[in-house]
C-alpha cells in the first residue's frame, strides 16, 4: 500500500505554555508526518518564538500568520496551505501519543476505495488533580474493541483528519461564524456532501482541561454552541434534545466538577477548602 502524505495543522493563540510539547511529540513521529503547519492567530506571548525554534530544527514545520481573529479563520488558513493528502487538525494543547500519525496513515492507506472521507479520535483530559477516571474506564472498555471502526456524524476538533479532497468539497460549505462548534459543523458538512466520518479508537490524544476550569455561566454559553450548530444544519430534533436534555445534564456535571477543581491547590497537590474562593481565568475563545 502506498502511504498517503500527512499534514498536521495547528491553529494557535497564546499557547506558549504547551505548544513546545505539542510540537515535540509530532517531531518524534516525523517518519509519518510530511509537514506541520502552525497558524499563529495574533498571539501576544512567546508562541511564535517557540514555534520558530522548532522550525529551525525541523524544516517541515511552517509558521503562518492569520490576522483575522478566530479559530475558523486560522483553521482555514492552515488547511488551505497544507500540501498533504491527509489533513489532520489538532489544537495547540493537544498531546498526541506515540504511533498516532502511524495509525492515521495506515488506516487511510488501507482505505483504497475511499470509503471514509474523514476521521477522528477522542480526547482524554490530562493534568486533572483527581485523574480522568471516566476517561480511563472508557479506554479500558474500548481496548477490548480497539480494532472496531464506526461511522460518526460529527468530528472532534482536537483530533480530526480530513482527506484533502474532502476539505476541497466542504471548504465553501463550512460556516465562518464564531458562535457555533466548528468541528461539529465540519463533520456535518462532510456527511451532507455524501462522505463518511470514521471514529478511530486507536488515536486517543491528551487534551488540556482548561475548558473544565471555566465558570459555570461561561461554560453554559460555550455549550450553547451545540444546539445552535444543529439548528444551522436544520437538525431541529437533535437541537431540541441537546438544549433540553444534554445541556442541563452536562452543565450540572460541570458545576460539580468545577467545585472539585477549585478545591485543589496546585502548589501542594492537596485539596483545600479555602481554594474554592480562588477563581481562575476563564478560557478565552481564540
Automatic annotation (TrEMBL):
Pfam families: Glycos_transf_2. Pathway: Carotenoid biosynthesis; staphyloxanthin biosynthesis; staphyloxanthin from farnesyl diphosphate: step 4/5. Gene3D superfamilies: Spore Coat Polysaccharide Biosynthesis Protein SpsA, Chain A (3.90.550.10). InterPro entries: Glyco_trans_2-like, Nucleotide-diphossugar_trans. GO terms for molecular function: transferase activity. Keywords: Cell membrane, Glycosyltransferase, Membrane, Transferase. Residues 7-116 form the Glycosyltransferase 2-like domain. The keyword Chloroplast does not apply. It is found in: Cell membrane. Catalyzes the glycosylation of 4,4'-diaponeurosporenoate, i.e. the esterification of glucose at the C1'' position with the carboxyl group of 4,4'-diaponeurosporenic acid, to form glycosyl-4,4'-diaponeurosporenoate. This is a step in the biosynthesis of staphyloxanthin, an orange pigment present in most staphylococci strains. Belongs to the glycosyltransferase 2 family. CrtQ subfamily. This is 4,4'-diaponeurosporenoate glycosyltransferase. It comes from Nocardia caishijiensis.
